[in-house]
Fold these 3 entries.
Entry 1:
Amino acid sequence: MKELLLKYKSVVRFVGLFIGTYLLLGILYSVYLNLSKNGSFYPDYITHLVAMQSVAVLNTFGYAACLNPAQTVEGMLLTIDGRYTVNIVEGCNSVSVIILFVAFIIAFAEKFKKTILYIFAGAVLIYIINIIRIAILTVALYKFPEYENVLHAVVFPGIIYGFVFMLWMIWVRMLNVNPKSNLVK
């Protein structure tokens, strides 16, 4: 067993760092969500901010978008021209996706400064892409409500996860590889 662990040390390190980081950040996010209950921002500050920024993007492009707290589920109802279009809930705020991104980058961590800068830049880009994604999804659902299932369940998750995958691939290509051992430094 010890020989296997030594032989696959880099794989064990990757898996341990990935799972450990993912669990730690997931627990911290869960604590944040619990502390956010009955807070000033509905349903929580980050989701509220994402909803407001999505509305601002839509209004910038000439849509009469408006937000209202949802009555039946925890979220923000986004309307265009007074017509319900989407409900922005906690899962729409991109935090879970950012946690997944960060866990992967830390599992393949390199130099501290380089890793932190990439995590920060990637998280900001994911956040921005998510707001744009919500705005485009809202317009698509406003104009083509009959395609809600495929747009919401396939196309737009594919955009955000595809973007994260692209960021991961860029990170892996940026890593310094030791040609003698083919292991990440």
Entry 2:
Amino acid sequence: MFDKNRVARWCAPALLGLFALALTTLLQAQVTPDDPDWKELDAPTPPAFSTGKLLPLDMPPYVSVKFGIDPSTLSIGVDGIVRYVVVTRNTSGTVNAMFEGIRCGTGEVKTYARANDKGMWSTVTEPKWRVFTDNLPSKHAWVFARQAACDGRATAASSTSDIIKALKK
């Protein structure tokens, strides 16, 4: 006689294992570089930025620092890197900025330069790619990637106008 409950008890763990394996493979594919010969272009000089038309990032409510992207600084390089200036404002009103790049295919961010509250840039001497999930002081790059910069968290958005539209939603 066919016992449906017995078959279900046997199949459920097997199906769950297959699902976990498929999910792991999919997640690994999203952070594996497509091109082992990929080379990053030289980063441009940090652009001038404005605090007047910032597009806010949807940070979690417990984050007191406000983050916004200056849309005039957005670019997508032929190397696939989304570069931008993110401006921060803390609860006391102090404004700082960072010129960064996101590599969507690997889930990484790099800070090229930082600006102080007077808008003066200081370049990072040896900028390094860091994975979004590293223990960083802020998860704003991960939020920006998910909210607008990356299409499906695997490739850069197709245009800066698409990024701006996604930030305005």
Entry 3:
Amino acid sequence: MAIGFAPETASVNSSRRAARHRNLEPAEWTAAGIPLLINPREVVTDLHTRHLPAPGTAVVAVYSPDERLTASASFAQRPHVTDGWERRNAILVHLRRITADDLRRRRPVRTAVLLVCRDGGAGWTEVDGAWMWGLRDACSLYGLRPGSYITMTDDGWRVQGEERAGRTPNAASWSATSRGAASLRPSGTPPLRRAAAR
């Protein structure tokens, strides 16, 4: 009797190829014509104040045409996921909880922005590419415009694809800002908060 590993099936190979396509490179993101934030520092500071994201947390926010925040939610994220399909589904779940879709409009008016607080360097990673693909696809399915994708690390925040960045707030800021709340969280547990702005 021979013992060994069975060869991978065609369906496994094709699903891996599909997963690689559900991932955007920075150049593809830039070429997609994502609308620029007028004042990214204000957006990042406001979302940080509302949600106090720690590493392992994502924040999705919806803005009106005049860049007024209309709804936002923070949620825990699975690390190391490089398939945008899973990222898209996570974004859609939280969009549905905080705001109605705009699918009846002829063209998108509101914009969704995604801030991801994570460990590691500020540069683009494959995980970021999956979030970008997920944000773009979720917006298409929900009748929104895909907006900026922002990462927050220990080095500060960065609008990926635009190279606009700042040193504060950063991935460690939540612990200094929320002394009381931080002490109640188990070590390494991201804050799970949802907020809807009016």
